[in-house]
Amino acid sequence: MFSYTLRRFASMLPALLGVSLLVFLMIHLAPGDPARLLLGKRATPELVTKIRTDLGLDKPIYVQYVLYLKRIVLHGDLGTSTHSRRKITTELGERFPATLELTFAAMILAIVGGILLGVLAATHRGRALDFLGMFSSLAGVSMPIFWLGLVLILIFAYGLGLFPVSGRLSPQYDISLEKLTDIAFLNNFYTLRTVATGNWTAFWDYLRHLVLPAVTLATVPLAVIARITRSSMLEVLHQDYIRTAQAKGLSRRKVVFKHALKNSLIPVVTVIGLEFGYLLGGAVLTETVFAWPGVGRWIVEAVSKRDFPVIQGGVLFIATLFMLVNLLVDMLYTYLDPRIRLG
């Protein structure tokens, strides 16, 4: 296991290098001048030239890339935002907890709902429940995220008034003084912070803000997990050991959930890992619609501002997370199926 993990980490390095090079070239070859955008249209040519020199934009592209890699490898420094003049790592520490909490909430809904829907469809194959479940999953995959988010806002926020429209917390709940720890990154987890400090009113308000974006974000992975669970369960339910378990007189629930479901989880876990990685970096539309201050919305704002360091650092961070999630999924295989050996 240890040697396998080391090899996987070693294989991640060329991939991350390729991601960094591709993103670097794409944003630097795109039209527009970050210095001009930062200063405004009325800036003098002399001032624009000075800013370009300060930001290192006057150097050749290959020199800029080498300096960028050197700063990351030697110092672990992702750079400084040209717009806010703050460290990228600092802004990531503020934004990533919001994305992580939203992703976890969405994945819990997607995993529970998707597996249950897939199991019900597989155990009622060809009947109304099967058709209803598969139609629902097809609709979930087909619906645009931004459209679904707006519809949920119109119905449950403006229409019924059950949930807030946007943001993470209502203005009247100021938790800035309720510092949980000296580690700033942990203080940005609102669930952990409100529970640890006993601020239950702020906690429930935060959960109300979390419901609509989490449901919106969970729609596509829930549909994918449901379809994969159904197909995997149908294959397992026809195996000989399932018929043997039924012949022993085991209850239908035990046969389905203890024997069939566990042995059909390998492809399901693979999809869950992929979807979790996608959501960590792909919640752009959801975060934009609900004004959720996460990494996705942060990168979108950086693109509009031509903030090169933020785009580079954010994409590289997301790519690293995606690869780590896939590594954890591979390791989980050995637990689900002892016959699998990593190597």
Plain-language structure description:
The protein has 343 residues and is mainly α. The chain folds into two domains: 2-75, no CATH class; 96-336, MetI-like (MetI-like fold), CATH 1.10.3720. The protein has 16 helices and no strands. It has helices at 2-29, 34-39, 45-55, 61-75, 88-123, 128-142, 145-159, 184-187, 190-196, 200-236, 240-247, 252-263, 265-282, 284-289, 295-305, 308-336. α6 crosses α10 (200-236), α7 (145-159) packs across α10 (200-236) and α13 (265-282) packs antiparallel against α16. The radius of gyration is 24 Å and the shape is globular. The model has no long low-confidence stretch (mean pLDDT 79).
What labels would you give this structure?
16 helices, 2 domains, MetI-like fold, 343 residues, mainly alpha
